[in-house]
Amino acid sequence: MAKIIEKIEKLSLPVVVTKGLIVFPEINVGFEMNRPKSRRAVEHAEKNDRLILVVSQKYIEPDDPSQKDIFNVGTIAKVKQTLKLADNNVRLIVEGLARGEISAFDFSKDFITCDVLKKVIFLERNGGIKGEAAISETMRVFEKYCRFIPKLSDDLLMNIFSIKNPGLLCDYIASNIYFPTDKKQKLLEEFDPFRRLEKLCVILEKEIETLEIQEQIHRRVRGQIDKNQRDYFLREQLKALKRELGEDENYDSETEEYFNKLKSIKNNLTKEVYDKLHKEILKFQKQSIHSAESTVIRNYLDVCFELPWNKKTVDFINIAAAEKILDDDHYGLEKVKERILEFIAVKQLKPELKGQILCFVGPPGVGKTSVASSIAKSLKRKYTRMSLGGVRDESDIRGHRKTYIGSMPGRIINAVKEAGSLNPLILLDEIDKLTRDSHGDPASALLEALDSEQNKAFRDHYIELPIDLSDCLFIATANTTDTIPRALLDRMEVINITSYTRNEKHAIAKNHLVYKQAKKHGLNKKTFKITDDALYEMIDYYTREAGVRNLERELASLCRKCVKKILEENKKSITVNNNILLELLGQRKFKDDLYAKEDEVGVVNGLAWTSMGGDILQVEAVISDGTGKIELTGSLGDVMKESAKTAISFIRTIAKKYNIEPDFYKTKDIHIHFPEGAVPKDGPSAGITVATAIFSQLTGYPARSCVAMTGEITLRGKVLPIGGLKEKTVAAYKSKIKNVILPDANIPDLDEIDKTVRESLNFIPVKNAESVFENAIIFPETEKTLNFDANADGVCLPDKPELYSSIMPPVVPGNIAKDNIMPHFN
Fold first, then answer.
1. CA–CA distance, 394 with 543 (Å, rounded to integer)
2. How far apart are CA 187 and CA 173, in angstroms?
3. CA–CA separation, 93 and 76 (whole Å)
4. Average pLDDT, the chain
5. Bridge partner residues of 458 (DSSP)
6. Which of 685, 705, 735, 771 is an active site residue?
7. Helix, strand or coil, per DSSP, at residue 382
8. Which pLDDT value is given to residue 55?
9. pLDDT tens-digit series, residues 8-49
10. Helix (H) and strand (E) counts for the chain?
11. Cα–Cα distance, 652 to 75 (Å, whole number)
12. Cβ–Cβ under 8 Å, residues 550 and 543
């Protein structure tokens, strides 16, 4: 029997605590330290006998472990070398000397020390026969273990097989073979070499059993998959592991979540949608969690499950309440309000009525966008806005194919997703600003969505599933219909919103904007007041627009200056009149429309429509001796130039009747000029204005300065109808021109003119250009002047008044069409 010699020695040593690292006696180990206490412990040891106690903590988590977090047995080691690293860490190389059992800790210093019992057990003749038997058994088990670990180095195996000391053999194997830290600690805590080898054999046998099961699973999986599909192999290996553990292999946590979501909305889905989503989930289940394909499918499923499948809000069917909401939020816009109330009324009688597709067309700032929000509020529908200005890619509307990197659904699907309802009000803002390029035409992509017969099964390129948009209320806004493709325009019900009149702007400012801006700047009705005259002054001379955006900005500026004035002068309130307005906002930014105040030859007042409303624009004509040249100046468009040539050709046909030289077109140069030459002008309705100016020059008879006119002329002198009559008549009213000559065919449009304007003007309908001359030109007293009253107030209807009785009833405010957005005669 071999003799066992035990040696015990009591020491006091600095402590180095490690994470997941066990140092064994007689083994050299290198590791990094990043704890200040450990570095100071090593520094202390280097100044003395270079001895430290290396002990592992029980758990990885604590960064500053206490006594309860540290094992009671460690290894007494000698510091061989220290190396400072760039990241302020220290790499330490130690040589294990002996096991040590800790009896007491001392945490009072800036590093940990402990009292340790150094225990060393020596076996005489390496344990004799018992030692040889123990080593033989251990080597048998280790060789069996090595069959499952083929990557062990030859040097390591040679060293192991050459060791004859049982205790060193156990420590060397444990130090160089991967075991969990707790198992290595149990080997360290065993001081007896024979019992230590027994424990090592038990651990190796358990590892071998585990490796055998893994090899069986590995062989089973290898028969099912391709060798090169590493990710797929790992997933199949996981499935085999779950089969061995008796777990359900079909679901992991994420896949199970998708199946649960699909189950919860199954009743809301069609069979096609359900089958598609189920197929995608199964495909996702088969992918590696880190594969690119799994990310694509995950994003796709997330988007699909975020869609409001068959979720709809209940419409608020109350005409009176809806009308009150619309009236409170917006002044005027009667046609828009009437159309929405009609929709609500029909919805009340026929709840299954599908969504409507409307298009509000009008100049900027008249409330097209904001009224859509009020409509959603009146219907109690979800509201979402799509800004289409500058969109040039079809994929922005219909989405990208999900196979592309960074693909996403289109704007329509995103709008439905954001609304959380399948019947929201979707605002297609600035639909006339859509562009196109090599990536497709976004306007064409909207055709399906805006077709009430097709959008019940709208398919986005990304979703690839039918989405029912038939209950959505689509409202588009545009400044003009000229740039909207005809096929798209045909799918929408166009409602024209004209510019606000002077009185409408005053009402909007007084009832809405003044209070809104005062509240925004810390004022109220008691501290801030503005007179009606001051409001009209701001409307007439500080803004020039169709809507009220600039008016609101000027009111905001006025409020800021009033707040400053109140604080500087220590006032309690301020009332803004014209004088204070001039003081705060400075001189007028705009002047009255310039027009001839006196009757002149060759100068005629025309009426033009601009994006900011109506305007008075003079036409000047000069005749001089020449060779028949025609000069047209004033930044004119092609249509206006053609109108001028048409007017000259017509006058040639009536030259003899009015004693005009028949060959004037050969012997005279005609120069026609439209002032404000920097402003582009176009449109056909300047025809009678140009003809009258030329006629006045050729005859030498002056044109009346109190008359303004609009109308398109033909070669035969007929006067054709025009658009923008409401704005043009407002311009005449503002300029205090009492008489307006207009085409006879435009008489029905007078119903839509503001009542105040209609009652203040004398309208002179004409059917041909000669009627225009007879009313606009001052002929000698021997000739007759028709239908003209320079002091007339109200409506003058010549010839047969019974034909024009339609304009006599009270006017219903409304909107009329315009045929161009640039300043022009139309």
1. 39
2. 11
3. 13
4. 80
5. 467
6. 685
7. coil
8. 92
9. 888 889 999 998 888 899 888 888 888 888 888 888 888 888
10. 28, 24
11. 121
12. yes
Backbone angles phi, psi at 422, to 5 degrees: -90, 0
Taken in order 203, 208, 209, 214, the sign of the CA dihedral is: positive
Rg of the chain taking only CA atoms, in angstroms? 47
Task: Give dist(CA 164, CA 672) in Å, integer.
Answer: 121
Question: What are the Cα distances from residue 753, in Å, to 374, 750, 763, 803?
Answer: 25, 5, 12, 19
Rounded CA separation 30/94 (Å): 6
Q: Residue 57 forms beta bridges with which residues?
A: 70
- Residue 294 CA: distances (Å) to CA of 254, 280, 407, 581, 587: 11, 10, 14, 66, 67
Residues 6+ apart with CB under 8 A from 184: 22, 174
Q: CA 564 to CA 661: how far, in whole Å?
A: 68
Closest CA to 13 of 80, 90, 102, 139: 102
Residues 6+ apart with CB under 8 A from 86: none
Q: Concatenate the DSSP letters of all residues of 786-815 into one string.
A: -S--TT--S----S-GGGGGGGSSPPPP--
Q: Is 266 a catalytic residue?
A: no
Q: CA 434, 548, 503: angle at the middle one, nearest 5? A: 130
Please tell me whether residue 138 adopts helix, strand or coil conformation. Answer: helix
Of 199, 561, 728, 734, the active-site residue reads 728
**DSSP conformational letter for 511:** I
Widest Cα–Cα separation across the chain: 158
Q: How many percent of the chain have pLDDT more than 70?
A: 88
Indicate the range of 31-40, 175-184, 638-647, 807-816 predicted with least confidence: 807-816
Catalytic (active site) residue 685: yes
Query: Rounded to whole angstroms, how far apart are CA atoms 446 and 386?
Result: 12
